[in-house]
What we know:
- The chain is of the alpha+beta class.
- It has 2 domains: 61-171, CATH 3.30.1330.10; 179-344, Phosphoribosyl-aminoimidazole Synthetase, Chain A, domain 2, CATH 3.90.650.10.
- It is built from 8 helices and 14 strands.
- The strands form 3 sheets. Strands 9-11-8-12-10-13-14 form a 7-stranded mixed sheet. The chain has a 5-stranded mixed sheet with strand order 1-2-7-5-6, with helices on one face.
- Strand 3 (84-85) and strand 4 (88-89) form a beta hairpin.
- The longest helix is centred in the middle third of the chain and has 18 residues, at 124-141.
Amino acid sequence: MVNLLPGPIEAEGWVCPAPLRDSPTIVMGHGGGGALSAELVEHLFLPAFGPAARGAGLGDAAVVPVGGVRLAMSTDSYVVKPLFFPGGSIGDLAVNGTVNDLSMSGARPLVLSTAFILAEGTRLTDLARVAGDMGRAALAAGVRLVTGDTKVVDAGSGDGVFVNTTGLGLVADGVDIRPERARPDDVVIVSGDIGVHGVAVLSCREGLEFGTAVRSDTAPLHGLVADLLATGADVHTLRDPTRGGVAATLNEIARAAGVGIEVTERALPIPAAVRDACGLLGLDPLYVANEGKLVAFVPPGHADRVLAAMRAHEYGRDAAVIGQCVPEHPGMVVARTGLGGTRVIDMPLGEQLPRIC
């Protein structure tokens, strides 16, 4: 290699911009919802849990039979930075996120728990604002906040406010929505514009302002899901594409179901402001987080009624068909480009935008 720099090359202290997969310590990418997150679960948590985790699903919510009914349960933690961003805050994000995770199993959300980890020195006015946003979001979603916990850590050990929410919901008889149910020929539908939440959060981070007016899409999606199920369509799979964006979600489903997925790039609903921001920062909108969108996999004969039901709902007005499942290249997602070629949409290793939810 020819050295074009003055003086000798000093490699000591260099770091790789992408986290190494054999890192002996936790890196930010482990929390990104991509390949590193999946490896952490598969190779550390599940073996460590042993028989206690036998039969555990790897989705965002687990459906468990209890006393003659089926309960869905989900838990999630929120560490978004900053706490308040255009269109929302960590408070409504925590409620809507868990409501949506329950909804993606077809459940009707019922109750949530709330747990706070607070850094010493956090302003009480900020905490009150977060709690107020949570209360209003729960009321809007029709769920009750029934129990909770609060812990405080030393100044510098945390970062303001971290929130965990756990939710329970009820799954009706006959509803079977799982990633494994995706089938070849299934039509893939997204409920609206993608990449909005990630760009909204990024727009207000110090040093990264670029003047966009994008607001987060954080919203509860259980009403939209209920409308889809009311059509009588056989909804195979639902997911909300949060961390890792649409790309991570499609890859997870492709691998779980053993199908290939082909996406048409021109059909992707990407707002101009999101496209411009991603172009400026070198990001791919497919990998940017969403908090008020879902991806649905349905048989081709049911796609029209599902699409119509989405577009009739306030949170699905811009719904679009973006692709379909195919028997070829199982476990892989590819995109048909505007030039007629194809490109592989791989599972992200870590996360383009850390601390996004």
